[in-house]
Amino acid sequence: MTHNEDCDARLLVESLLERLSPPIRAALALRELEGLDYEEIAKILRVPVGTVRSRLNSAREQFRKLYTKAMKETEDV
After folding, report:
1. N or C end: fewer C-beta atoms under 10 angstroms in the chain?
2. SS3 77
3. What secondary structure does DSSP assign to 17-65, as a single string?
4. How many structural domains does the chain have?
5. pTM
6. Domain of 43, in residue numbers
7. pLDDT, tens digit, for every residue of 11-46?
8. What would you report as the CA-atom Rg of the chain, rounded to the nearest whole angstrom?
9. 1: which DSSP letter?
């Protein structure tokens, strides 16, 4: 991957993350970017661990759909 492709990919990911609702974006960022475990995320967000699991599941599913759609759109260009 070239530097430009790497930058484009990073911008795409940031753009897609911004489209997620704040509660699920926060959970995803704490898990995937900060590497925190579910219990740590629950403490930070002041929600039960089950809520963290639910938010992460929603975030991953929504992100996957957005990413797939974005990739399909770039292929069509």
Report:
1. C
2. coil
3. HHTS-HHHHHHHIIIIIT---HHHHHHHHTS-HHHHHHHHHHHHHHHHH
4. 1
5. 0.82
6. 23-76
7. 888 999 999 999 999 999 999 999 999 999 999 999
8. 14
9. -
